[in-house]
Amino acid sequence: MLKRFAIERDIPGVGTLTKSELGAAADTSNKALSKLAPKVQWQHSYVAANKTFCIYLAESREAIEKHAEISGFPANIITEITGMIDPTTRAA
Q1: Number of domains in the chain
Q2: In terms of Cα–Cα distance, which of 42, 40, 46, 51 is closest to 13?
Q3: Where would you tag: which of 8, 18, 73, 87 has the fewest CB atoms within 10 A of its CB?
């Protein structure tokens, strides 16, 4: 069963990359993912000034680390997500 992870990546200047440059980064990530399938799946990423915050499904933390190694993108902080809340969450 795949677990959900949030990965914080320190990538200086990532927030100033063009759509084309971000597309090339996505291609690099996808190539690494193809080598690890079905152990790791990328859901989406949020881009900030000098970081990305990525949401992945993976068998383990080690699978995330392997993706980082193959892709060349750092995985500075890897956090397993154990639940979710949103504005509709309320006490029973």
Answers
A1: 1
A2: 51
A3: 87
For 17-66, the DSSP string reads --HHHHHHHHHHHHHHHHHHTTSEEEEEEEE-SSEEEEEEEES-HHHHHH
Where in the sequence is the domain holding 28, given as residue range(s)? 3-81
Judge whether 27 lies within some domain.
yes
Instruction: Report angle CA 51, 61, 70 to the nearest 5 degrees.
Output: 65
Tokens (6 digits) for 65: 């680390």
pLDDT tens digits for range 25-81: 999 999 999 999 999 999 999 999 999 999 999 999 999 999 999 999 999 999 999
Encoded amino acid at 90, one letter: R
pTM above 0.90, yes or no: yes
CA-CA distance, 43 to 58, in Å (whole number)? 10
Rg (CA), the chain: 14
